[in-house]
Specification:
mainly alpha, single chain
């Protein structure tokens, strides 16, 4: 079920909210749990069993870790291996087999397994729980329904943010649903919905039309337009989902950590990853980078740790060489910045401008790898971008963008900067007329977004496939 669907907005969500607040506080977790299972089963009726199996394995694994502390490494290893084993089977098995066939000239049959939606996200949340119990950061959760609620809570189940157990353990047990949180949550949801329907989908149409072409048929300007359109589309698509998830969580009394913090104002790739998909970055930091030794080891080992983390980041995103090379690409820049210290240098406008332009160039080129169907296409596309390959240029820019698309580009670029950062938060502290104007604006955004939903076909979020 999509957040950006009539079924969710006008049927599922109102019914869940009404039932939740009409139920006694002690039973509200069960309402959310049943709603979350229904939400997932709506689109994945069979694979809901895989998610429930993941919940059971981690519930049992954590109990064994807590009960038999002398063997806790064994039980932790077994539980995490089971989690990663299921993720590997559904997400990477066919990729590995196809590469073996290509390298060894074999003909092993592919399983053509359909990957369960959201498996990368809920698997990482499950691992977060058992590791937190192993580290004694949190008490073991013996109530399986509460652990299930953490892993499959529907606002963040499909595409994050990746919620770490120690961040919400207390909220699962005790939380307060306040009217101001509900209002804030509704507004945050509207902003996220508008990002998806009005910005991301419009920009996505431009990017899709361009990436559907052969690179030999596009000129430099068209290639750059496609790359920039996709860069903005991906940001508004994913941050829009995160906004909706955070808003829905607030309605039910949960406070999820922010997942984006204006990444496109970054002046280094290091800073970019502190602002982009923050929940994934911090997950890898806490559960991979620090256990590898972090920065408490030799310089060479530290650089290797950074490389491993970004290789894992690429692999996490998908079973494709595109994502692996994309992860290595970002890791190479992180390592270069660590060696040179360029990301820490402070200077005048010239240095600041250079840092920002270099960062934008790095992530826009990286998004081409991320978007392309394969690295062959990505390589040809990038050669056109940098004028290294002659093209026939069958279409000019005005074929892909008109007045409306130009307007959306301008709005998207402006909103990628922290100009309106505190608009919703400070709304309650403003005088009546500004508050009325902001609320009217949000109502208009909601009406336009719903109109866009009514006029659109199936439009899943990009990160659903991860």
């Amino acid at each position: 079920m999509l957040f950006s669907s009539m079924t969710f907005i006008f049927m599922f969500l109102p019914a869940v909210i009404a039932l939740y607040f009409l139920t006694r506080p002690k039973l509200r977790n069960y309402v959310l749990l049943l709603a979350s299972i229904l939400f997932y089963a709506w689109g994945e009726p069979v694979y809901v069993l895989i998610m429930l199996l993941t919940i059971f394995i981690n519930w049992l694994g954590a109990i064994l870790i807590d009960k038999y502390r002398s063997h806790k490494k064994l039980f932790l290893g077994g539980t995490v291996l089971a989690d990663l084993g299921m993720l590997f089977y559904f997400k990477y098995f066919d990729f590995i087999i196809s590469n073996i066939n290509a390298l060894a000239n074999t003909n092993y049959s592919l399983l053509s397994v359909i990957m369960p939606i959201g498996i990368s996200f809920y698997t990482f949340q499950a691992i977060s729980y058992v590791v937190d119990v192993y580290r004694t950061q949190v008490p073991v959760q013996k109530n399986i329904s509460k652990l299930a609620l953490y892993i499959c809570l529907f606002p963040q189940l499909i595409a994050g943010p990746i919620v770490k157990y120690h961040d919400v353990a207390t909220q699962i047990e005790h939380r307060q649903e306040r009217f101001e949180h509900i209002v804030y949550g509704a507004k945050r949801f509207i902003v996220g919905l508008a990002k998806k329907m009005l910005l991301a989908n419009t920009l996505g149409a431009v990017a899709d039309n361009i990436f559907a072409m052969s690179p030999s048929d596009m000129g430099i300007a068209v290639a750059w337009l496609g790359a920039i359109a996709y860069s903005l589309q991906l940001f508004y698509d994913f941050s829009g989902y995160s906004d909706m998830a955070i808003g829905l969580g607030a309605i039910f009394g949960f406070k999820f950590l922010e997942n984006f913090n204006y990444p496109y104002i970054s002046k280094s790739i290091t800073e970019f990853w502190r602002r982009w998909h923050i929940s994934l970055s911090t997950w890898f930091k806490e559960y991979l980078y620090i256990p590898l030794g972090g920065n408490r080891v030799s310089r060479a080992r530290n650089l290797m740790n950074l490389g491993i983390v970004f290789l894992a980041t690429g692999i996490w995103h998908g079973a494709s060489w595109n994502f692996i090379i994309w992860g290595i690409w970002h890791g190479a820049f992180i390592i270069m910045e660590k060696i040179t210290g360029i990301h820490k240098r402070v200077g005048g406008w010239a240095l600041s401008t250079f840092q920002h332009l270099y960062t934008m160039l790095a992530f826009v080129v990286g998004w081409v790898m991320f978007r392309a169907d394969d690295m062959t296409y990505a390589t040809k596309y990038m050669r056109v971008m940098f004028g290294m390959k002659p093209s026939d240029m069958l279409y000019k820019l005005d074929y892909f963008i008109g007045t409306y698309q130009i307007f959306i580009f301008i709005v998207a670029i402006l909103c990628a900067m922290p100009i309106f950062k505190n608009l919703i938060q400070e709304n309650n502290n403003t005088k009546p007329w500004p508050r009325l104007a902001i609320n009217t604006y949000l109502v208009c955004l909601f009406v336009m977004s719903v109109s866009a939903i009514a006029a659109s076909t199936y439009n899943p979020f990009i990160y659903f496939r991860f």
